Automatic annotation (TrEMBL):
Keywords: Membrane, Transmembrane, Transmembrane helix. Coiled coil: none annotated. This is Related to human band 3 anion transport protein. InterPro entries: HCO3_transpt-like_TM_dom, HCO3_transpt_euk. It is a multi-pass membrane protein. GO terms for molecular function: borate efflux transmembrane transporter activity; solute:inorganic anion antiporter activity. The keyword Chloroplast does not apply. Residues 54-312 form the Bicarbonate transporter-like transmembrane domain.
Length: 327
């Protein structure tokens, strides 16, 4: 509680929040939209590749994209490979499945006869300057803009503000579903303040904001899921016996080390020396990454499971409704 606040013996009425009236169906729809966007971006990137390279190189791009996707999906299931390998090896393969797949298919086109094939790679900068050729500095000289353009920019600014709030709130709802067992919900409130500040700075610097849609947040919660086993001792006073029952529940590692490390790596790789390393990445690998993220988001989407229930004819295979359902 902040300093200077006093407590009262009368219970305070909780302040209603607008987002508490939003059901999880809208969160599922947003997650489904993210999956569709990923798949659409993958197809769009392949179309650009087809227009810029030879047909043989395009066919390899399709193979590379599908290979990146399938290898990442295959390695992500390593935890179920028991008894193969040690447990920590399986955990490492599952946690870094995407990174292993990306690195492998970045190096593959540079081996043997594939090295002489024309390929489309990511466009990067070799110097610390804006990507737009017309600009030489990062700072936007907004005081030189015509006054009418300043007022017109309020309209897209307001739209971005509304989308930013909605996207963050919906991503927060998706990440704090009951099945995740989140205990520290306050971190998402601090995130929106931090991301709002960085978005304002990005607007002044004229660079893309660090957030926008946040589909990676639910995937991050999924990657931090783990099983917690607790022993519960039940006693029978009449029989004088005790029974130990092991209960399992799914929880999320609530920590900020991995998102901080991810942000630090992003900051490092936008610097010119490491940008050249990113320039070695074929666009087909990016397509495979889009396919994987779309598939992972779609696999955990409840709307997909509800659609499968529509095709289920046997009542025994359908899940039972909770007892407190009144509709």
């Amino acid at each position: 509680m902040p300093a200077g606040c006093t407590t009262s013996s009368r219970p305070s009425k909780p302040t209603p929040e607008p987002m508490q009236y939003v059901t999880t169906f809208s969160a599922g729809i947003l997650s489904l939209l993210n999956s569709i966007i990923y798949f659409h971006k993958a197809v769009q990137e392949l179309q650009r590749n087809h227009a810029q390279v030879s047909f043989a190189s395009f066919l390899y791009s399709v193979i590379g994209a599908i290979g990146t996707f399938l290898l990442a999906v295959f390695l992500s299931t390593a935890n179920s490979w028991k008894p193969l390998f040690h447990r920590y090896i399986r955990m490492g393969l599952a946690e870094y499945a995407v990174a292993i797949s990306i690195i492998l298919f970045i190096g593959m086109p540079n081996i043997g006869e594939l090295a002489s094939m024309d390929k489309q790679t990511l466009v990067v900068q070799t110097s610390f300057r804006p990507s737009t050729p017309d600009r030489t500095t990062f700072f936007v000289e907004f005081w030189k803009l015509p006054i009418e353009w300043i007022f017109l920019s309020i309209i897209p600014g307001a739209i971005i503000t509304v989308l930013f709030f909605f996207d963050h709130e919906k991503s927060s709802i998706i990440c704090t579903l009951d099945r995740y067992g989140i205990k520290k919900h306050g971190g998402f409130a601090r995130d929106i303040v931090f991301l709002g500040t960085t978005s304002a700075l990005c607007g002044i610097l004229g660079i893309p904001p660090a957030n926008g849609l946040l589909p990676q947040a639910p995937l991050h919660s999924e990657s931090l899921m783990h099983t917690v086993r607790t022993e519960v001792v039940t006693a029978d006073p009449e029989a004088g016996e005790r029974e130990t029952v092991i209960k399992e529940r799914e929880e999320v590692y609530e920590q900020r080390r991995s998102p901080f490390l991810r942000s630090a790596l992003i900051l490092a790789f936008i610097c010119p020396p490491l940008q050249r390393v990113l320039g070695l990445t074929p666009t087909s690998v990016l397509v495979g990454l889009f396919l994987f993220m779309g598939e992972q988001t779609l696999a955990s989407n409840p709307i997909l499971h509800r659609f499968a229930y529509m095709l289920t004819f046997s009542e025994e295979d359908l899940p039972k409704l909770p007892r407190d359902v009144t509709w």
